[in-house]
Amino acid sequence: MPRDVMRDPEALAEFLALGAPLPPVVAYKGRWVAGYDPERLDDLLGDMAG
Q: For the whole model, what pTM was predicted?
């Protein structure tokens, strides 16, 4: 679910708690990918697919 860290204080708090260096961040089951990283996104999305 997309969240806007500029408009949603709770989303900003979650983003900062991750320690991610920059948005966008894709998070799933405690793992996250920040920015544009196709290889890591493929790995994360593969885990989501099962």
A: 0.70
Q: How far apart are CA 6 and CA 28, in angstroms?
A: 21
For residue 20 the two structure tokens come to 């991610």
Distance CA 43, CA 4 (A): 24
Query: If you write DSSP's letter for every residue of the chain in order, what string do you get?
Result: ----TTT-HHHHHHHHHHT-SSS-EEEETTEEEESS-HHHHHHHHHHHH-
Q: Delimit the domains of the chain by residue range.
A: 9-49
pLDDT (tens digit per residue) in 8-39: 999 999 999 999 888 899 988 888 999 989 99
Residues in the chain, overall count: 50
